[in-house]
C-alpha cells in the first residue's frame, strides 16, 4: 500500500487569442470533447484538436440550447447525406 499523497495536478493557464477582423474564424478540426465545466451563467467546453491541443470555448448557459439544436440539425443532415435521403 502506498501512503504517498498524489502529486498536485497542474492547471495550465489558458492563452487568450485576440481575433482581429470580422471573421468568421475557424478552429482546427476538433476530435474529442474532453471536459465540460458549468457555472451559474457560463459553461466552458474543452475540446481537443486533431493536433492534440486543448481549446476552451466559453459559452453562456442560455446558448447551450441553441448549440444542442444546431448539433441535432447537423447530425440529421449528416445521416440523410449518408443514407442518400432527400426527405427534410
Explained architecture:
- This protein is α+β, with helices and mostly antiparallel strands.
- It has a domain at 30-83: OB fold (Dihydrolipoamide Acetyltransferase, E2P) (Beta Barrel).
- The chain contains 1 helix and 3 strands.
- It has one helix at residues 63-83; strands at residues 30-38, 42-49, 54-60.
- Strands 1-2-3 form a 3-stranded antiparallel sheet, with no helix packed on it.
- A hairpin with a 3-residue loop joins β1 and β2.
- The longest helix is centred in the C-terminal third of the chain and has 21 residues, at 63-83.
- The radius of gyration is 18 Å and the shape is globular.
- It starts with 29 loop residues before the first strand and ends in a 5-residue tail after the last helix.
What can be said about this structure in brief?
By secondary structure, the chain is α+β, with helices and mostly antiparallel strands.
Topology:
Blueprint: E1 30-38, E2 42-49, E3 54-60, H1 63-83
Antiparallel strand pairs: 1-2, 2-3
Write out the strand line-up for the largest beta sheet, numbering strands in chain order: 1-2-3
Largest sheet geometry: 3 strands, antiparallel
Residues in β-strands, percent: 25-35%
Give the CATH topology of the domain at 30-83: OB fold (Dihydrolipoamide Acetyltransferase, E2P)
Number of helices: 1
* Helical residue percent band: 10-25%
From the coordinates shown, what is the CATH architecture of the domain at 30-83? Beta Barrel
What's the β-strand tally?
3
Rg over alpha carbons:
18 Å
CATH class wording of the domain at 30-83: Mainly Beta
Structural class: alpha+beta
Distance between the termini: 60 Å
**SSE ordering:** EEEH
Oligomer: single chain
Average pLDDT figure: 85
Contiguous uncertain segments of 5+ residues: none
The general outline is: globular
Amino acid at each position: 500500500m502506498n501512503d504517498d499523497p498524489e502529486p498536485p495536478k497542474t492547471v495550465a493557464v489558458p492563452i487568450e487569442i485576440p481575433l482581429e477582423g470580422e471573421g468568421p474564424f475557424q478552429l482546427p478540426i476538433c476530435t474529442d470533447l474532453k471536459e465540460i465545466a458549468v457555472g451559474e451563467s457560463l459553461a466552458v467546453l474543452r475540446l481537443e484538436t486533431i493536433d492534440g491541443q486543448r481549446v476552451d470555448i466559453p459559452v453562456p448557459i442560455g446558448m447551450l440550447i441553441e448549440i444542442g439544436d444546431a448539433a441535432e440539425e447537423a447530425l440529421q443532415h449528416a445521416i440523410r447525406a449518408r443514407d442518400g435521403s432527400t426527405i427534410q
